[in-house]
Amino acid sequence: MSLVGIIQKIRPAPLQVLVLNLFGLNRRKVIQLDTGNFYVDPTSNFGSSLAKGAYESELVTLIQRHLGPGSTFLDLGANEGFFAVIASKLVGPAGRVVAVEPQSRLGPIILKNLTLNKCMNCTIVSAAASDHNGELTIHLAPTTNTGSTSVFHVSKYPVAKEIVSCFTLSDLLKQFGIVRLRESGY
Predict the structure, then answer these.
(1) CA distances (Å), 102 to each of 46, 107, 156, in order?
(2) Nearest-angstrom CA–CA distance, 25 and 19
(3) Which of the four, 16, 58, 66, 103, has the lowest number of CB atoms within 10 Å?
(4) What pLDDT is recorded for position 74?
């Protein structure tokens, strides 16, 4: 097992992040896959999955099956933009992707991943979907698993918080002129 693999087993997660930072092991790098190029932290849950060559392969297959040129893809909780990149290539220049991600720390990463893949048909929305318009507080998971950030504080240890803008899904659809949704059956 590699040093990174051993460190990934350290719990709680904030201690793991501290050790990774101490040894300088969480430096982002570009990983090239068939689905695109991705600027990731190879020590994160997401990055280590991509480094092994696959991430959410069933969902990728589903997206590939249902999207075509001219489609619109709405990515709620875009995290680092993985699905937004895949969707962008599938919908092509006549289509569009709306990547919604409330964590301010991930906006630059999404932009980098979109830029690496020449995704010109994407809009990043820095906000959260909610049952109301306004603001809400999110509880930021450690950087090794940004996908577990939540409006609920579920860990036994303290985490950073961020106040973010939020909107209802119907308001987002109106804002982007999306008049029809298709159920994926997933």
Answers:
(1) 18, 8, 23
(2) 9
(3) 58
(4) 95
DSSP letter (8 states) at residue 43: T
**Alpha helices, DSSP H only, in 74-146?**
82-91, 107-116
The Cβ of residue 95 has, within 10 Å, a number of other Cβ atoms equal to 19
pLDDT above 60 (res 185):
no
How does pLDDT run across 60-97, given as a tens digit for each residue? Answer: 999 999 999 999 999 999 999 999 999 999 999 999 99
The owner of tokens 């793991």 is 16
The structural domains of the chain, with segments of one domain joined by +, span 3-175
- Buried b / exposed e over 158-182, threshold 16 CB at 10 Å, is ebeeeebebbeeeebbeeeeeeeee
For the entire predicted model, the pTM comes to: 0.91
C-beta of residue 115 within 8 angstroms of C-beta of residue 139: no
Tokens of 123: 């809009």
* Residue 3 pLDDT > 90: no
Token pair belonging to 158: 């303290």
CATH 3.10.129 is right for the domain spanning 3-175: no
Pairing of strands 161-168, 29-33: unpaired
